[in-house]
């Protein structure tokens, strides 16, 4: 009894840290997604073409990609707690400044979005630094999924609120409101995580035994980063390629789903944002269910590699199938069903590639995330901008959906060939 009671505080503190990380991810995505709805009235006000819209939407990812590896290294040096708080302040401030920059010039707007992207780049390396040092094997999938839950929840919130704010207060109010929210939470993060002993990330002796051989101290990590080993292993390249393939669908949906419902299904700005919520609800449900199933399979002795392959390949191939079905969608209801399927089934990857960093290199999961998400950010630049160009060239989404399906199939083939759940480096 005494041992069980002793371990309970440590468990509570660990879960509080994971919950706070999920809230940070939630705010990260409301700030990232709001422009996918706001871009509609912005383009109408400034007279932008589809290509210009794609350039504005993709500019965020230039800063995001450029800062990804450096912030992964920084998380490994100074720890995730301090880095995430600083990142919150940075990206929230540039969110707040977005309408001001837009009123100055297109160049100023693009520069502001690039800087916002650089701020958000630190979020996931910081969070993976925390998860790698807190979560034992039987909880990894669920911890990663809880954090990733911030993506659909933040997206849903942004789609619900952004349309309403635009109709009642103008598109500028979206960035002021969401940027201000992030700045408030940054203060809360520092006070709760750093100043209050009751929830300060310390760990009990019982939990340290659970986490062994992963380093459990909350201080910084000073081990050399094995760059050559990481960059020469097939499992890492499977992660790099699959992060790219998985995010192709993610960023396509984030940037263009409201425009798809507006342009193809002829819905209002508020209606297109509201209708776009369904796929993110689907992602939330399937992603968390997949994580629970994966952890239970592993706890019962299933091979980790087999579990990751089932989840990752099932998600990519299922998503590809729904994109092909979307080519036949002739009604808003049918289109919504296909988009829910593409994003929802794709969320099986929550228990596939998304947690695999913690499987194969737990001490360097922060750096590894920075490496793989550099490739994972390319769809935000290439895919988002290419969609705008394809729309101008073809006048529809057929080419866009065919390309997304092909990218998903490529990822599944690579994962089957090179993916593993075994640790490749201590």
From TrEMBL:
Question: Key word Heme present in the record?
Answer: no
Q: Taxonomically, which superkingdom? A: Bacteria
- Residue spans making up a coiled coil are none
One Pfam family named in its UniProt record: MFS_1
Organism from which the protein derives: Sphingomonas colocasiae
> Domain Major facilitator superfamily (MFS) profile, which positions?
17-423
Tell where it localizes. Membrane
* Keywords for the protein's UniProt record, in alphabetical order: Membrane, Transmembrane, Transmembrane helix
- InterPro entries in the record, alphabetically? MFS, MFS_dom, MFS_Na/Anion_cotransporter, MFS_trans_sf, SLC17A9-like
Q: What name is this protein filed under?
A: ACS family MFS transporter
Span-the-membrane segments of this chain are: 16-43, 55-75, 82-104, 110-131, 143-165, 171-190, 235-257, 277-298, 310-327, 333-355, 367-391, 397-418
The membrane topology noted for this protein in its Swiss-Prot or TrEMBL record is:
Multi-pass membrane protein
């Amino acid at each position: 009894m005494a041992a069980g009671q002793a371990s309970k505080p440590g468990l509570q503190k660990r879960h509080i840290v994971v919950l706070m990380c999920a809230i940070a991810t939630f705010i990260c995505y409301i700030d990232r997604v709001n422009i996918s709805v706001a871009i509609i009235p912005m383009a109408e006000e400034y007279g932008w073409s589809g290509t210009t819209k794609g350039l504005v939407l993709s500019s965020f990812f230039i800063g995001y990609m450029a800062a990804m590896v450096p912030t992964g290294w920084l998380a490994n040096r100074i720890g995730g707690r301090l880095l995430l708080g600083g990142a919150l302040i940075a990206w929230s401030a540039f969110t707040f400044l977005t309408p001001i920059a837009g009123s100055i010039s297109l160049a100023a707007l693009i520069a502001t979005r690039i800087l916002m992207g650089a701020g958000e780049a630190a979020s996931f390396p910081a969070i993976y630094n925390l998860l790698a040092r807190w979560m034992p094997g039987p909880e990894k999938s669920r911890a990663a999924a809880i954090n990733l839950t911030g993506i659909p929840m933040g997206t849903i919130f942004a789609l619900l609120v952004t349309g309403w704010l635009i109709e009642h207060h103008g598109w500028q109010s979206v960035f002021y409101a969401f940027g201000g929210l992030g700045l408030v939470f940054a203060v809360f993060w520092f006070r709760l995580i750093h100043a209050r002993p009751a929830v300060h990330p310390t760990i009990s002796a019982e939990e340290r035994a659970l986490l062994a051989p992963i380093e459990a101290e909350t201080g910084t990590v000073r081990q050399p980063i094995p760059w050559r080993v990481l960059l020469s292993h097939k499992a890492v390249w499977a992660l790099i390629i699959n992060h790219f393939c998985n995010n192709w669908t993610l960023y396509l949906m984030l940037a263009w789903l409201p425009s798809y419902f507006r342009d193809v299904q002829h819905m209002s700005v508020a209606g297109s944002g509201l209708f776009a919520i369904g796929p993110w609800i689907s992602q939330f449900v399937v992603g968390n269910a997949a994580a629970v199933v994966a952890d239970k399979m592993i706890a019962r002795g299933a091979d980790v590699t087999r579990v990751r392959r089932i989840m990752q390949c099932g998600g990519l191939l299922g998503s590809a199938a729904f994109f092909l079905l979307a080519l036949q969608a002739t009604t808003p209801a049918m289109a919504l069903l296909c988009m829910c399927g593409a994003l929802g089934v794709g969320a099986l990857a929550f228990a596939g590639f998304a947690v695999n960093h913690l499987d194969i290199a737990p001490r360097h999961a922060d750096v590894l995330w920075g490496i793989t998400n550099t490739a994972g950010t390319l769809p935000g630049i290439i895919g988002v901008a290419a969609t705008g160009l394809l729309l101008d060239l073809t006048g529809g989404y057929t080419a866009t959906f065919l390309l997304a399906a092909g990218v998903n199939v490529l990822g599944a083939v690579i994962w089957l060939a090179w993916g593993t759940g075994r640790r490749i480096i201590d």
